Request: fold
Amino acid sequence: MTAPRHVTVPLMTAPRHVTVIGAGFSGLTAAYYLNQAGYAVEVHEREARPGGLISTQSTEWGLVETAATGALNTARFEAFAHDLGVQLLCPAREARKRYIYRGGPSRFPLRGRELLAFAGLLARYVLRRSAVAPRPQESLRAWATRAAGPGVAHYLVEGALQGIYSGNPERLSASLILGRLFAETPREPRPRRRGIVAPAGGMGELITALHSALVARGVAFNMEHAYVLESAPTHPHIVTTGAAAARELLAQADPQLARTLRSFDVSTMLTATLFFTEKCLSGFGCLFPPVEQRRVLGVLINTDIFPNRSRDYAEETWILGGAPGASASNAAQLVRMTDEALVDLIVEERASAFGKQERPVGYRITRWPEAIPHYTVDLELALPALERGGRNLFLHGNYMGHIGLAKILDRAAALPAQVAARGTWQ
Reply:
């Protein structure tokens, strides 16, 4: 009689647990992709609401964004919004006009020989890209001056990047900011709609839909909870707070990683959304290069971008603060000013820059003492260690090489593979 065969049946194991610390856009998108990959995800957030910097406030004058007014659309971002049931709006035709300030708003601020220098830069970029690629630890201003001269550096490169990085061009890292333009990367699929997009109800609508979808899909949220990490965790933790909060969180669990997070600066930012009877100019907005030494960084004409933001008024969002050297203002002083004093400052700048003498009918001001990282050479040097993380520690935020929401979404999509490769469960 033949002995029976013993067949080993694999046991069904519970999903592996992953903890996400922070419920801003970085934390929510990390939870979104980890949940899709089959992990059991728990999110901890010290505030009462999700979204971090991003929210949309409804006022008697119109909708107000506290941070990002939209996102640069990509195929991944488009699919992400579609999965959440969020319809994305494209900017109005009027928003095609964008300005950089050079003694006045200009759609193309270069002059004379600067145009020839810029044409030469474009030609070398096409024919021999490596010849004009940023060098390691080269500042943005040094690279742009070397590649095309001071005029192109001050007014085109520094002006165009002011609205994203709000930094001192003598300290900003050219490699961090522009390196991907010179790298050989696979061509990404194109979205159906190109350019900036936003939900009809503002960016807060995206946060609400994402949070609701995660709850429905089994992600656990522990709100108003200041997470404490006293030692290296026994399962993967994704730290998605801002850099300053991450430093404090990791001080005991991974002192070396905490020291690395202290090696670069974090900038203070303010946004002031004002409602007028007449807009200061027509178009997407205007950026003020550091060389102009204005007290503001830029202005967005919200009702020319997404007309539904205000039905009765011209809505403008003025951006202030940034790193020392980004403007003529001191961000630490700005954040301590009263709302009324900030409005007075903006009204003066608006009159000086655009000749518009008017007080706003209403306003909302948002202060973020620790908003965005200063993308300096210091951060360039720190980034390899930040990407390595620590034992069961993964960092994911706007200091990890890219600021834009679409780029943060790309990093979130890569997290499940990183957790599978480096994570351990005890």
